TrEMBL record:
GO terms for molecular function: ligase activity, forming carbon-sulfur bonds. This is Long-chain fatty acid--CoA ligase. The keyword Ligase applies. Keywords: Ligase. The lineage of its organism: Bacteria, Bacillati, Actinomycetota, Actinomycetes, Kitasatosporales. It comes from Streptomyces silvensis. Belongs to the ATP-dependent AMP-binding enzyme family. It comes from the Bacteria. InterPro entries: AMP-bd_C, AMP-bd_C_sf, AMP-binding_CS, AMP-dep_synth/lig_dom, ANL_N_sf, ATP-dep_AMP-bd_enzyme. Residues 454-529 form the AMP-binding enzyme C-terminal domain. Residues 23-399 form the AMP-dependent synthetase/ligase domain.
Length: 549
């Protein structure tokens, strides 16, 4: 028998309506770098989103489920696009502005973007590519920048403020099917070609509810969240949607992502929460060590995107910023696990260990581990296998291009539809995930697996080490062995032998790297993760100065 309950569609429009009606006074604060941050209430954002939707439909002819791309920093106008585009029925396509030119042009063509909204400060990056972005007809420029870079080009250029000015501040948003596409994001291609993940209204709605749960980020309207994670990196981990559900304010850094302005905005705007990948926090930590600031408002920091080194968590704890580690992927919206320790561990020596795991699965994410031959492995905290997940906000396929069928590559989806994450780890009996590696980064030495992450974490706990990345390199005897690449802090005195000695008290002897190289910086991907593909290539091409102990 069927239920007797109402069946109201779960849509982004519902989130917008709620945010503007119930939390209309909450604010999006955008850093401007000139001492006067821009402040806009959720109510104003809603009104301007309606104006933008009118402009996109009436002037630019955006219709149905057409993609509208953004090439923007985190700021209020980007939040306006986040709501205007999906609520009018179109699909928001956030472009990763740090991708190489060829990938960007490929992605824009694949998504058939006809309109791009761009920040003026990014025109230097976008303008030279527009001739190759043949699907693009309109560029809408927001904020200061050199508009002459677009002179003589093929596309029609609009000014964001002029385009929306004078339009109705309400929009009769269409009733949408909750399964329709609302937004899309291409994976950043750390381990292969970019692939388009298309989020539905329903998946965004359910994901936002999960982000807001106490065992996830658990923020309320008393909080102000510093959203450092880019809006083009998996929807800024769901924060713009989640905050409109709960009235959490957002502090947006725009283009001011360097450690000094970040420290300055924390001191002056006093956010209570912040979210970013570990490399951002390493930079901030160095800045605060060199020049202490009052960052006492910031008590909760969400770290994800790559493993949080224990040394970073400890250092932040000392500063009174409690780190909450989380794991996710573009394909998982991204919230997959969150490391909130279980009640019985609070205040015990076990607590820190729980916080260092990637975290516990929420009810909306089912997980299983798959062994090398496809066998199911138990959740015993010891059996390591590839993590597979399924759930309401997990991708079941990739975008196949305009008019094309969705793609389900065998190495990404199991025959019964689960997402193969490519991450290798163990799950404890109480549902906490500990990742040891990406499948492609595991070091296979003489039939045993060495975790590159474990070696990196151990190395980064050495007082002289600023950064360390470990990759597998070919070895005649063992098949593969670890190569340790290290960035030393200024004035550091450690040499390879002393680093190896330091490691020997922390990992098994057979795992100790014998190949070492000092590097000026670990190469990073477009979203700030260690780029091990580049390191492996540099090693293969003899570009690294390797010492063998
Ligand atoms: P890309 O795959 O291009 O790097 P994603 O942001 O989708 O882009 O990356 C997802 C991957 O990042 C995960 O599969 C995992 O390998 C890694 N990752 C994310 N969060 C963590 C974490 N907390 N610890 C370790 N690895 C993580």
């Amino acid at each position: 028998m069927l239920s007797t309950m109402q069946d109201v569609p779960l849509t982004v429009t519902r989130i917008l309506d709620h945010g503007t009606a119930v939390h209309g006074n909450s604010q999006v604060i955008t850093w401007t770098g000139n001492g006067a941050p821009q402040r806009r209430s959720f109510r104003e954002i809603g009104a301007r989103a309606a104006q933008l939707a009118h402009a996109l439909r009436d002037d630019l002819g955006v219709e149905d489920d057409e993609r509208v791309a953004t090439f923007m920093w985190n700021n209020a106008e980007h939040v306006e696009a986040y709501f205007a585009v999906p609520c009018m029925g179109a699909v928001l396509h956030t472009l990763n502005l740090r991708l190489p030119a060829e990938q960007l042009t490929w992605i824009v063509g694949h998504a058939a973007d006809r309109v791009i909204i761009v920040n003026g400060s990014l025109l230097g990056l976008l303008a030279p590519l527009l001739d190759r972005m043949t699907t693009v007809e309109h560029v809408v420029v927001s904020g200061p920048g050199d508009r002459s870079l677009l002179d003589g080009g093929r596309v029609r250029v609009h000014d964001y403020e002029e385009l929306i000015e004078g339009r109705a501040t309400a929009y009769d948003w269409p009733e949408l099917d909750e399964r329709r596409a609302a937004a899309m994001c291409y994976t950043s291609g750390t381990t292969g070609d970019p692939k388009g993940v298309v989020y539905s209204h329903r998946s965004i709605y359910l994901h936002s509810m999960q982000v807001n749960m106490a065992q996830s980020m658990g923020l309320t309207d008393a909080d102000l969240s510093l959203v450092v994670v880019p809006q083009f990196h998996v929807n800024a981990w769901g924060l713009p949607h989640a905050t409109f559900m709960t009235g959490v304010g957002m502090l947006m850094p725009d283009r001011f992502l360097q450690p000094a302005p970040l420290a300055e905005m924390i001191e002056s705007e006093r956010p209570t929460h912040a979210a970013a990948v570990p490399t951002i926090w390493q930079g901030l930590l160095a800045e605060l060590t060199a020049k202490p600031r009052d960052v006492s408002s910031l008590t909760q920091v969400t770290i994800g995107g790559s493993a949080c080194p224990p040394s970073l968590m400890e250092a932040f704890d000392t500063l009174g910023m409690r780190v909450c580690h989380a794991w996710g992927m573009t394909e998982t919206s991204p919230l997959g696990t969150v490391a909130r320790p279980p009640a019985h561990a609070l205040g015990t020596p076990e607590e820190f260990g729980y916080r260092l795991t990637q975290g516990r699965f929420p009810a909306g994410v089912e997980a299983r581990l798959s062994g090398p031959d496809g066998t199911r492995l138990p959740w015993d905290g010891e059996s390591a296998g590839e993590l597979e997940v399924r759930g309401n906000w997990i991708a079941g396929a990739y975008y196949g291009g305009a008019g094309g069928e969705a793609i389900r590559p065998e190495d990404k989806f199991s025959p019964d539809g689960w997402l193969k994450t490519g991450d290798v780890g163990v799950i404890s009996p109480d549902g906490f995930l500990t990742l040891t590696d990406r499948a492609k980064d595991v070091i296979k030495s003489g039939g045993e697996w060495i975790s590159s992450v474990e070696l990196e974490n151990a190395l980064m706990s050495h007082p002289d080490v600023a950064e360390a990345a470990v990759v597998a390199v070919p070895d005649e005897k063992w098949g593969e062995r670890p190569l340790a690449t290290v960035v030393l802090k200024e004035d550091a005195t450690a040499d390879y032998a002393s680093l190896q000695e330091f490691l020997s008290t922390r990992v098994a002897k057979w795992q100790l790297p014998e190949r070492w190289a000092l590097v000026p910086a670990v190469p990073k991907t477009s979203v700030g993760k260690f780029d091990k593909k580049v390191l492996r290539r540099q090693y293969a091409e003899g570009e690294l100065d390797v010492t063998r102990l």
